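Appendix B, Record 12. Input sequence as logged:
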Amino acid sequence: MNKLHKGAVLTAAVSVFAVQAAFAQVTEEGMGKIVPVEMFVCNFVEGKSQVDLDAVIAQWSDFMDDKKIRNYAAWQLTPYYYGGEQNFDMIWMGASSDGNAMGNSTHEYVLNGGEIAAGFDEVIQCGAHIGLSSAMYQAPPKNSTPGSSVMTMSDCKMEEGTRYSDVRAAEVEWAAYRKDNGSKAGMWHWYPSFGGGDQDLDYKIVYAYPNFKELGSDWEMIANGGGRAKSDDIFGDLDECDDARVYVARSIREAQLRK
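Logged structural output:
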């Protein structure tokens, strides 16, 4: 992945597995340690396939090992539930443990990873590259990143006159409710940082599930277990969010992003 080509639409989104932390790291104000995330939204070049991409990923992984970059994690996201605007094949999502780690790994890749970037460009064309800041409201179970996982994402916009402090307090209450009712999902807000530009949103709300069974369990809790009414009671008219997209996330490189 190097300079980006025109192609895929970005309204799709992001992975949520960038954060690995215990519930104790979510403060009373919500928002555990904020970490940087990047996404490339991509289509396969005609005639290329996952086999070709895996070959380049193996070279990239060797490069990361050689450069001793151990604080960058990566995933490949494949759309599962999606609309007509999500006209892309995959998202590459990477996350660093903090801003310094992001800067160092990007510097190393831009300076010395040209051959790897050219390899990616032969296999995938990426129509968008964005950076976001990820704030955690509920940590995933066992402080781990599953190799195969499920995520959902919605774009949200605050209603006129709403303060983010009000949204934050509501999310803390909602996260506690979900946990008390057996939810296994991690929960984050993602704020645009770099790229994008024309996105009409204040933040993305993201949930991560160990598998589709847990996604279904949360769906039942919300639809038939009183969760929807509780959500309406907590959030009222604070914000407006669109329908969630769902992605299957494949772990490409593991890293401990929070301790």
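Residues 2-25 have pLDDT under 50 and may be disordered.
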